[in-house]
Every structure is written in C-alpha cells, then in structure tokens.
Amino acid sequence: MERRGYDPLKTSEVLRNIVCIENRRRYYRFRGGRWYGGIATADCVGCNLRCVFCWGWQVRDKPRSVGRFYTPQEVSRNLLQIAERKGYTQVRISGNEPTLSWGHLLEVIGQIEAANLSFILETNGILIGSDKSYARDLSKFSNLHVRVSIKGTSPQEFHVLTGAVPEAFYFQLKALENLLDYNVTAHPAVMVSFTEPGNVERLKSMLADIDKTLVAEFEEEYVFLYPHVVKQLTKAGIRPRKAYAPDNIPEELV
To answer: H/E element holding 93?
Structure first.
C-alpha cells in the first residue's frame, strides 16, 4: 500500500475485472435477516475500500476464490424466494460493495421493482460521488432507498479506518448530494465507533450544508466485535470508543 493510501476509484477498476463478467456478479450467499425489520439479502464479493472494522473482510480479501457468478435474474429470483418465504417486503445487496457491477445492479433493482418490493442499496458512495450519472441512473426507480455508509467523520479518520487516500472521504458526501439532486431518497449511516462527539457535530454541519434532512436522518453506526473483526482491529492497533458485542449487548471500551 502506498504511504498516502490507495485510490478507491482505481481499486474499483481492478475489482470489476475480477468479480464481474458481463452482466454477472460474484456472490457468496443469500439469506434472510432481521435488519430493517426483516429483509432478504444477497451478499456480494468485492469492495473498493478496505475498512479495518469490516465484518466481511475475509470474503473481501479473496475476490477470486469466494462464491460464484450469478446473473441478475438468478439474484432477483433468490431474493424474491426468500422474501416470499419469510414475508419480507424489502431486499438488498450487502456484504461488500454493490455498485462495482453497475449494469448488473440496475437489472436486479428493476426486477425487484417489477415484483413490487422495496430495494435498499447499501453503499459506501465512492462511485456515486465520483460520477453523478450513477445517481441519475438510480432516479428511474420508484422502489429504491440508498443508505450511504460513511467511514468516519473526517478525511483523516477515513484514511485511518480504510487506508485510502484522505480526500476520497468527500466522495461519500458528494454521493448524498448527487442522489438528492436527482430526487433519490437517501440517508447517511456514519461509523462513529472511533470518533469523538465533537467530530460528529462537525460532520453534521457539513451534511446540513448539503441538505438539513441528512442531519435529521443521521444514522449512527457502531462496529460489531465479531472475533475476526477484533483480530483485524488488534492487528491495526485500533480500539473503538464504543462497540457492540455480537449478541447486540452494548460494550464500552476504554
């Protein structure tokens, strides 16, 4: 890794050639879950960030060997089957970064829209922030909500947590701006386990400059201390100020 960090846009280009073949994308599992009150999930392979707290890093770091390739039709069929069986009204792609295989993602969202279910797009926002045409493409869907997961509260914190160049932090904020400009519903989910309260307020001020609704819908995200996540944090010498045990019991760390 370069001293200043890697460029996530360049990382995206490399990964596309690994996890995407034409309109097919690599996935490693399909599941139901309690998040959002119940949601069907397809876990994809490949991410353009290397967050030290990532619960899916074991998959993220083996993009050539984990899972297999699925067409959009196969993905949507699996999601719809889970949703029908569990009585869910929402689906998502999670696990790594869904936007890497753009055409594939748009096809999946469209097929979910045709089935009258909601699609929650969980993304780090890097690509949507780097190119507003991504937001324009998403604006055609009526069943979509975007959750932009912001890594830390400042460029410096973003760099420490992801290893990427600090200035890439602003792509996440620009993603929210682009989405709102195209009337795509979205909100920020900010990893605050590693920050001080004052930094959170400064970030909220930046978000308010984009749109005050982003502050009203500000979601605080905390790291979950799965054993493999603890291993990564220990290796990096990083300790969260506040985290959650895997059984969801709050755990304060000093």
So the answer is: strand 90-94
For residue 91, give both structure tokens.
């689906």
Indicate whether this model's pTM tops 0.85.
Answer: yes
- The domain made up of 8-252 has a fold known as TIM Barrel (3.20.20)
Residue-wise pLDDT tens for the chain (254 aa)?
345 899 999 999 999 999 999 999 999 999 999 989 999 999 999 999 999 988 776 777 788 888 999 999 999 999 999 999 999 999 999 989 999 999 999 999 999 999 999 999 999 999 999 999 999 999 999 999 999 999 999 999 999 999 999 999 999 999 999 999 999 999 999 999 999 878 999 999 999 999 999 999 999 999 888 888 888 888 888 888 888 877 654 333 32
Q: Taking the domains of the chain in order of start, what are their residue ranges?
A: 8-252
Measured over the CA atoms of residue 241, residue 220, residue 40 and residue 69, the dihedral's sign is negative
